[in-house]
Amino acid sequence: MVTRVDNVAKIVLDTSYIDVKSATLAGQALKFTIAERHPHLGSALTLDLPEPIATAGTELQIKIDYATTEKCTAIQFLEPEQTVGQKYPYLFSQCQAIHARSFVPCQDSPSVKLTYSAAVTSPLRVLMSALETKSVENASNSTTTYHFEQRTTIPSYLIAIASGNLAGREIGPRSTDTESFIKTGEDLLTPYEWGRYDLLVLPPSFPYGGMENPCLTFVTPTLLAGDRSAVDVVAHEISHSWMGNLVTTRNWEHFWLNEGWTVFVERKIAGRLHGEAERQFSAIIGWKALKESVELFGENSPATVLKPDLSSGVDPDDYFSSVPYEKGFNLLYHIEKTVGGPEVFEPFMKAHVEKFASESVTTEQWKAFLYEFMEKHHGQAVVDKLNTIDFDLWINGTGMPPVDPEFDTTLADICYKLADRWDKARDSQDFTGFSPEDIKDMKADQKIVFLERLTDTKPMPHSLLAKMDELYHFTPIRNADIRFRWQQLCVMASYEPIYPHVVKFVTEQGRMKFVRPLYRLLHRATNGKELAEKTYLEHKKFYHPIAAQLIEKDMGLN
Ligand code: BES
Ligand code: ZN
Fold first, then answer.
1. Which helix (H) or strand (E) holds 115?
2. CA-CA distance, 333 to 341, in Å (whole number)?
3. Which residues form the active site (predicted)?
4. Which mutation among 236, 255, 264, 290 tests ligand 1's pocket best, with the greatest number of atoms within 8 A of CB?
5. CATH code 3.30.2010.30 region(s) in the chain
6. Protein fold of 247-407
């Protein structure tokens, strides 16, 4: 919690693997110390002020001269050979959750909000999570200095930079899909505050599907599958323009307020634009992702709690999973149903943004305002309904949510039926009833649900996998989500013909959602352990430092 006090004599900032050369206040050198490193949290940088600042609210300008180091976890530097063009180097950052401190000394907590401006000199184009105000060419050394300003207050994890041989494409004022997502977000919530909305497609080693850097969402190139699979991620990142970027989690224990709300809004947008059946279908996919996370951690694991306890210095990256996303979504969805549906709940959602925009909030504040709003607008009757919800179990309990959501399976039924037919054929080995027609009319998401259903059964016989591939041509498919699900199903069965394709997939892109489970499964599969380790070690430099660290943990290499 941010409180301002008088007589401040020291300033403490977070750093991680940063080389501080000097610190000055109005030209005068400051004494500073760098504390011993905490394994995940880094080293506190303490600046001693010559004399205490008497009154809270006094502004002062401190200049820190520092360099990042080789060990910087926020930034990946790519050699020219690691880029598509092969000619120019590239760099990009990923600060969420606690990596900003390895890039800038700062109060690296989402409870603190800041505006920033930056002047960055580079021979290559620079972009930041801010508005570009001007760029000045330096004729003498053929560099350009790019100036940026982020005028809306943001948490430090939203500071972002990328530089390389970047090409821009103007795709409409805000492009058609993105425009309708933003418009729907504005209808549901408040006007879009950030001026611009740009998308930057990152190099393949970008470790996430998307990152909601303000003004400039970062996305993985695995979205460019030639189908419409990219749009969900974009709708998700746009939804963060309100949930997360305006109303921010107070600390990483309340991370679900960012992601659960964002998934909820993302699915509201999908529902408004494509109908309720689509929203229900996405929720079904989310439920399955949640189930996988709970199975991975174990149903009693503290990592499956909606509001986990991170006080012992847990690394938020270690707890990253579908839990905050999907348990969070399900809690909001359950509340919506309980209080009387969208007519009652959507106005609360808007009021939540209006009330907390530019603040950093806790689960307790969120809940108190939910009650306050419902009481004020709907009286005791709706408060009584809220009281039927076991909030403590939802928020602090482990494992799957306490209530079965009973999503509408209209779009999922054909996927389940087809999966059940294959499951039955495993014993008879009679595949005569199957043909490419089975999946011809399925959308990408339906193929995913079909494959996911099969990963829920015991490992498939190899003859069945071979037949399925012959009929459905899953192995060469470009859509990364389908490719992932297919490879997962095959590796679970130790189906060795897939191994070279898995190696190719996990070394040509570094999105953790795909590479971590595939490495984990390959490591456990028959004749897979050495292949997984060898593949990783040979391509270690390809991965972003955050991904590398987690893959190593997953395979017990560190
Ligand atoms: N903010 C997250 C990514 C993130 C979370 C990075 C925590 C670091 C720490 C982003 O908005 C996100 O959720 N991305 C998802 C997209 C999906 C849910 C549509 C991803 O990367 O898969
Ligand atoms: Zn998100």
1. strand 113-122
2. 9
3. 237 (proton acceptor), 325 (proton donor)
4. 236
5. 72-241
6. Neutral Protease; domain 2 (1.10.390)
Active-site residue, from 237, 266, 278, 326? 237
Known catalytic residue at 333: no
Q: Is the CB of 285 inside a 6 Å radius of any atom of ligand 1?
A: no
Give pLDDT, residue 77. Answer: 96
Radius of gyration of the chain (CA): 25
Evaluate the omega torsion of the peptide bond into residue 97 and state whether it is cis, within 30 degrees of 0: yes
Q: Which atom of ligand 1 is nearest to the CA of 97?
A: 9
Q: What is the pLDDT of residues 21-34, one digit of tens each?
A: 999 999 999 999 99
Q: Nearest residue CA, atom 17 of ligand 1?
A: 233
User: Where do the CATH 1.25.40.320 domains begin and end in the chain?
Assistant: 414-555
Atom number in ligand 1 closest to CA 232: 19
pTM of the complete model: 0.97
> How far is it, in rounded angstroms, from Cα 485 to Cα 451?
6
Angle at 549 between CA 543 and CA 555, to 5 degrees: 100
CATH of domain 72-241: 3.30.2010.30
Q: Which CATH fold topology does 414-555 show?
A: 1.25.40
Nearest residue CA, atom 3 of ligand 1? 211
| Predicted confidence (pLDDT) per residue in 189-232, tens digit | 999 999 999 999 999 999 999 999 999 999 999 998 767 778 89
Does residue 460 come out as left (phi exceeding 0), alpha (psi in the -120 to 50 range) or beta? Answer: beta
Q: Assign 176 a pLDDT band (cuts: 50, 70, 90).
A: confident
Query: In the prediction, which pLDDT does 558 show?
Result: 86
CA distances from 260 to 93, 148, 307, 356 (A): 24, 31, 11, 16
- pLDDT given for residue 337 in this prediction: 98
Q: How many CA atoms lie within 13 A of 306 on its CB side?
A: 27
Q: Which atom of ligand 1 is nearest to 96's Cα?
A: 8
pLDDT digits (tens, 9 = 90+) for 460-491: 999 999 999 999 999 999 999 999 999 999 99
The CB of 209 under 6 Å from ligand 1? The reply is: yes
Q: Is 325 a catalytic residue?
A: yes
Name every residue whose Cβ is closer than 8 Å to that of residue 128 and which is 6 or more positions away in sequence.
Answer: 118, 120, 146, 148, 150, 159, 160, 161, 162, 216
- Terminal C-alpha separation, the chain: 35
**Does the beta carbon of 208 lie inside 6 Å of ligand 1?**
yes
Taking CA atoms only, the protein residue closest to ligand 1 atom 10 is 211
From the candidates 90, 157, 197, 325, which is the catalytic residue?
325
- Other CB atoms within 10 A of residue 198 CB: 17
Determine if ligand 1 sits within 6 Å of the CB of residue 152.
Answer: no
Using the atom order of ligand 1, give the atom closest to the CA of residue 546. Answer: 8
List of residues 6+ apart from 62 with CB closer than 8 A: 11, 23, 24, 25, 30, 47
Query: Whole-angstrom Cα distance, residue 508 to residue 385?
Result: 51
Cα 121 from Cα 236, distance rounded (Å) = 32
